[in-house]
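S., here's the first fold you wanted:
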Amino acid sequence: MSAASSATPGSPQASSDPRPQAGRPDAALDPQVAQLLDLIARAKRPPINALDPLDAKIAYEKSAPILDIAPLPVHHVQDLSVPARDGHAIGARLYAPREASWADPLPLLLYFHGGGFTVGSPASHDPLCRLLSMRADCMVLSVDYRLGPQWRFPTAVHDAFDVLAWAYAEAGALGADPARIALGGDSAGGTLATACAVEARRLGHAPVLQMLIYPGTCARQDTPSHRALAEGYLLTAEMIQWFFAQYLDQDSSRDDWRFAPLDGGGSGADVAGCCPAWIAVAGYDPLHDEGVAYAAKLRAAGVPAELAEYPGMIHDFFKLGRFVPAVGQAHDDAVAALRGAFGAA
């Protein structure tokens, strides 16, 4: 999932409250985040889930740049087309921080944007991808996978898998090093990245990292953080279910591990042998607990998983850096994780 800046009217609960129930953080809400939520509440714009899906897509694209950092200049940006299994041309945007060659290939981050499988695009996540490319000194391939409600589950997963296979096959032609490919995504894009980590293992590939930014991983959205933070923090319970109503082909697909890698079908994805993970979670995010649980699932399977907690933050905070200075630390941490995985720390 991911929420537009106009997404949720409603004042946040008092940031100084101790955890009154399971699922609520002990830490105070970041003061700039609290101010932002207050501004959104005062604007009284309709939540994204009150819009027609097409209007929601437009609204998200318009609102995405407002609170995000200014886009960094990069050496090269190229729009590409990747063939899908059904003949569809999947759009992708390739960022390069410097010239690459066969003698000096660059690491590559395969990135999947958030947006509840319904909104979002490489354009909405352009500043983040530019930052990761320049500061981690890697190529970033940002994937324009197909969205609901026109394209329902498992189309987005198939698109992600097809781009994954293509990236490994074409790495040399792109100037990328196939031995240094990472997978990444935020929210719904984090779900796709988890699935790609499992698919990569099946294909015999060895990504160096899965960078999961507040990923969606559970089947029923019934964790303590989902219950305690259902209203008032940008991403609401009603919005989450609206997103999934646009995306899922049928309710039983919630039990498919490609939708719910944590617990789909009871045991979720078989993650043994998958690549290491760096997982960022926000304290005031309904998705907090499932990110924590997914890190535990990976560790239980013997997969190294670093959990980065940002207690005063909300969902989608990686894209609020223009308004919330503390987001800069999370960006630093993500860059450090990538550089470490690429052997460039």
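And the second, which I think is the more interesting of the pair:
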Amino acid sequence: MDVIDIGRKTRRPDQIEIPPGLIKKILLGFGALIVLLLIYSSFYTVQEQERAAILTFGKYTEETTAGLHFKWPYPVQRVVKVPAELTQVITIGYTQNGDVITPNDEEALMITGDENIVSADAVVQWKISNIRDYLYNIDNPEQFLRNAASSSIRSVIGSTKLDYAITDGKTEIQEKVRELLIDLQAKYNTGMQIVGVKFQDIEPPVGQVSDAFREVTNAREEKNTKINNASKYENDRIPKARGEAQALLENAEAEKKSRILNAQGDVAQFNAIYTEYVKSPGVTESRLIIETLEKILPKAKIFISDSSSDTVKYLPINELLRSNGSTASGNAAANNAAPSDAAQGGTAK
């Protein structure tokens, strides 16, 4: 073997000289890197719509909510995040990808209680209520929920007649399906909460049967609309008629009481006058005559003239009244002439 002379020291060609302390530095750097990785992996962030389950040596120990948290590095602890604060949706009878809707007849078609075929599309809204049950009690939670929803819908529709299912029974069917789903989740401890169930369509399969049932449904809706309008008109007119009738009765009763009171007052007045008349008939008769004249001749003017002559006299009374001076002199002359005319047997015209 060849030997290379490098001064006082000799080495073989396959030997590499390692500087003193290099291995120590490499080990220190590797250790620092591991420490940094462990520190970095000890902190984790949970988003607003999430909750996190902490697994210590593979066993569920606790859960955390939104924010920055600390855990022991892997493999001591591990974090599993689930969208527990998010309301999720599954569809029955169709699939939706964006704006594209694809029917799923295998899920949608089912038999009603009167042995007819109906197509039912539904949307089930749900949330994660218990992370531990959700992670450990069922293998595929969404598939379990889909199967449970399909089974519940078929169970309810299977006990409902077609005519009721496609017309007035939609709301009742939704409620029954929701109750069945809630019972199934509680029975198997799935950790899922049913928020709501809503049917998109409940109708016969597409074709002539569907068109016929649609016409029947439209006719029934039109019938219900007319009945509602008639009931509205009835509810509007009857109270008004009753009010008008009651008003007429009250007005008649008020008129009756008014006339009775007026008649009683007239009777009382007549009795009072008669009592005074019995005491002094002449005075009472004169007073009644004067009061009557005051009522029927409140603004009457009396002109007295002499009619003893055979000559027809013309008095321009209107012209005399228009002139204040003539009126005053005419009144004075009438007053002066009154005693003599009365004495001579004059009459008033």
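Why I say that: The chain has four domains: 21-82, 88-206, 233-299, 301-348. The longest strand covers residues 117-128.

Talk tomorrow,
H.
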